[in-house]
Amino acid sequence: MGWCSGTETFDVAVKMVLDEELSAEEKIERLINAWWKQDWDCEGDSQYWNHPIVQPVFRRLAPAYFDDGWAATQEGAGDE
Q1: Which of 12, 30, 41, 72 has an alpha carbon 20 to 30 Å from 18's alpha carbon atom?
Q2: What is the pLDDT of residues 20-36, one digit of tens each?
Q3: Is residue 58 part of a domain?
Q4: Range of 24's domain?
């Protein structure tokens, strides 16, 4: 991320955190898409990679990660 590219992601995060009508899955999807827009490419390093709510969102948004076996090689930083 560049010097100010985090502002856009921060704004997405705050907006969705404050939106009480969104489900956890919808909030996670919005965060993933915001970071992808900023060229996020280390998803598997997230400590939440294997989280039971997060993993299905990644499966829906990026099925190729799971079809080619890449996801199985990602352990994340831990399970939260």
Answers
A1: 41
A2: 999 999 999 999 998 89
A3: yes
A4: 5-73
Domain tally, the chain: 1
Token output for 31? 């965060």
Whether residue 80 is contained in a domain is answered as no
Task: Tell me whether residue 78 is in a domain.
Answer: no
pLDDT at 46 over 80: yes
Distances (CA, A) of 78 to 21, 50, 62, 75: 29, 8, 21, 7
- Can you give the C-alpha Rg of the chain in angstroms? 13
Whole-model pTM?
A: 0.77
In terms of phi and psi (left: phi > 0; alpha: psi -120 to 50; beta: otherwise), the region of 40 is beta
